[in-house]
Amino acid sequence: MSSRKWNVVAAVVMAVGLSACSSTKLTEPSAQAPIETRTPLATAPGSGGSAANAPAVTQSATPQSQVATVDLARTSPVAASAGAAAPGQRVVLFDYDSFAIKDEYTALVDGHAKALGSNRARRMVIEGHTDERGGREYNLALGQKRADAVVKAMELLGVPANQLEAVSFGKERPVATGQDESAWARNRRAELKDR
Amino acid sequence: MPPFPIESNQHTSRRRILAGLGALAAWPAAAQFRVEVSGVGARQIPVTIASFRDQDKAGVAVADIVRADLERSGLFLASAADTALDERSSVVLADWRARGADALLAGSVTRLSDGRFDVRYKLWDALKNEEVMGQSKVVPAADLRLAAHRVADEVHQRLTGEPGVNATRIAYVLRTGRRFTLHITDADGEGGQVAVASPEPIISPAWSPDGRRLAYVSFETQKAVVWVQDLSTGERRMVANFRGSNSAPAWSPDGRQLAVALSRDGLTQLFTMPVSGGTPQRVTSSNSIDTEPVYSPDGRRIYFVSDRGGGPQIYRVDAGGGAVERITFAGNYNISPALSPDGRTLAFITRQGTAFRLMTMDLDGGGAVALTDTSDDESPSFAPNGRLLVYATRVQRQDVLMTTTLDGRIKTRLLSSGADMREPAWGPYGR
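Above: the input entities. Below: the structure tokens describing the complete assembly.
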């Protein structure tokens, strides 16, 4: 191939190639979308979560291969169990494949419901968990069912809904490693935490 | 399925049967060039690839990346040339044909005055006895690996008629101790970069159709919240932070909507909402758990997991809601659906006894087929050419990311870690 033809071919190929990998210049964010940059921002409408602190962002030099790293510091202290209460008094354990609150935990749930009833400013979050068997998303939903069971039980005892939120960690935050029933049993739980 | 023995030939020293993974626990820096392929395709195309002139000066072994990419597909036998060649060389194709090559690739990597590099090559077809392709790519230094992957894709396409996926990326989550990181690597498992580092779990990464953003679930606020992040800038926004858990994001094919699983009304149910944030539209209404939505490639339907029938099974529904149709029937636990780009094949995870195994099923009819003989499979994800799946599993006490052809015959190991490695998601063609 003559060098001129080669240059034409190359130019055409390059044009095609470059158009396929088009410029990575970002479009401006749409007005309705809150973007987290350096300051804590309002979240999407309808959501009520806390804003995250500004993370550190580092960028490398190139458009197409570059991935900027977002480094999240711990944004809020992990809600600690209140004062003198022993850990065992804030954990409800569940049987395999079950969301039923066993009789042995009735007093625990009762006690926390009373504490919330006597102080309307208090809030609690109930965190549901599963053992490590099974898929992550399905287990997230199962853990949610466990947390919901505790919240419902407390609502039945008269606690207003706005003092409670049920969330789930699924299998992401086990307290016991190990692949035996004793570890699994400890992980199938709901934790009651002050907010 | 036991690996097929590799026929003995001059390339044997460069290939290994994927058997004792324990022996390969430590990956040296040149790991990307040590391709581990188990199983063989019907016939592999022998291609000779000469080192690109000045690739050493550029610091990126372009030809080696191309060879490894082609071998990893299972469709090629790639060998090096024993003479120095570049795209300007006069070649006697009969000589190369006599040495067993069906095709020959040679090129160069030239530094330009502005600091970028011009990657050029020519591909010769030794059977047709002619030059079939010539290309030039100008890239910044940090995109040289990407350029090499694009060369491999172009050769793959030219010689097989099908697109390669070497220039695509894979996202996955790594947990080391109390740190969770969301990684982006090239499709060969190399060039890893961290998109998010967090003290709390990250799950369910999902690529936008344009390959520029990831949706994922982060527990940084002590509950499951869906975020969308631009990969090249790090800009991120909270998209779903409703009461309870917000998870399982899936992009609509037009990139405008996310399907999500929300527990805001009690039980986890499916909703769709604009990626830019806004009011969720409910898609399913059941007295059960509905989660893990995934759009069909035409955007019209959503496949999902529901335990409305007892145990979790895979169903589908129109994207706007409506009648729900059950898809999986065998066994009592089927989760993690993934759709092939042509919409015809469903990949998923089934529980058999205590084992979790990757399956595929033809949606036109036909039973499900197991692709592996491992027992901790999770998170299948299709490559955008629909020919491969990536998944996570455990082999000899190590977490590994594997790829497999849809018939399960050709497998490669992408990454291996003593740490907790999970949730691989194969990115689209675009960047």
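Note for the figure: Confidence is low (pLDDT under 50) at residues 1-31 of chain B.
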